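S1.2 Input.
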Amino acid sequence: MVNGTERTHICYCATTPGGNVGGVRMNIGLATLPRDRFGSLSLINPSGPGQFLTCPLEVGGQTRLSLNASIPSGASLKIALTDEDGLTELPGYGRKDGLQNLPSGLDTPVEWPAGRFLPRGAKFRIRGELEGEAAQVFALYLETER
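S1.3 Output.
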């Protein structure tokens, strides 16, 4: 598997069944898909909202959050940072503080009025809230500037 800027490339081979190696036919193939979209989080029941919560994180340096998601018209994705327990949203990093509906994209930045960088020196979690049919989150990216 190789990740490019826009696409993920997966090489594979397939063989016909058979015990005699001489009679087996083999094919090599290439599957491509948008970058990092091999699996996703989505709603089981799109009639109501759903949430995901990461494990506790702690970052050093200036770290940004971006995401890889597909949010079609009529759906929404809101991202918040919470305390280490996942119960209380951090001031300035709540769902109501950021963009109300993050757009689709392979590398969409997540920003809040508190800043575009994640808080340093304290543990926090990332909470996402999905609403609407066909909304999918494929990946969250943490990028630290050097």
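S1.4 Remarks. The chain has a mean pLDDT of 86.
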